[in-house]
Amino acid sequence: MTGPPPARPGTKHEGENESESEGRAGDDADVITQSLDEPELFAGLYDRHAPDIHRYAARRLGEGAADDITAETFLIAFRTRDRYDTAHRLARPWLYGIAANLIGKHRRTEVRALKALARTGHDPVAASWSDRSDDRLAVQAPLAGALASLSPGDRHVLLLVAWADLGYQEVADALRIPLGTVRSRLNRARRKVRESLNTDPAFTSAEQELTPSWTK
Prior knowledge:
The protein is mainly α. Helix content is about 65%, strand content about 0%.
């Protein structure tokens, strides 16, 4: 298995705008509540969010680990759904928070992979981090090095914003930290990444094209 199964109707598809997706995802809390009596309904939550969780985990740890992270995320979510705060109608932050905790247990693997990519420009995980052609992976090596230098907490915040597209409050909810902590970690992470990229000559030639907007 190299990813979650195809989504059923109601799942966000590539190219679909965010408002359409959120309109369908707005009843996450209802699905979770109803699944307490009818457990099979929880499959709808998986269909809706598993592709995004898998994609995020793959970017951080690679396809193989992403399969396990995704499966365990939804297993934990299912087992703890009776404690879900239904005031939060959208379950994305909750699910990303579970996934982030699981990814955190693999932080040594992630850092080793990032450092390998930064050093050599090639790594087995690299292909799942980018849809760019292989000859551009070496150009991204400085970014990998910058990410590897971040603390686990700062890296979680930065990548939940950059790769999971969560808002600040959603990140705070996901990681169960104050909003102010999200802002301070994000500012610190952005500053460190900017400093690393701006001082690395290997990045200079493609800086205009590849500098992520979330480092600004």
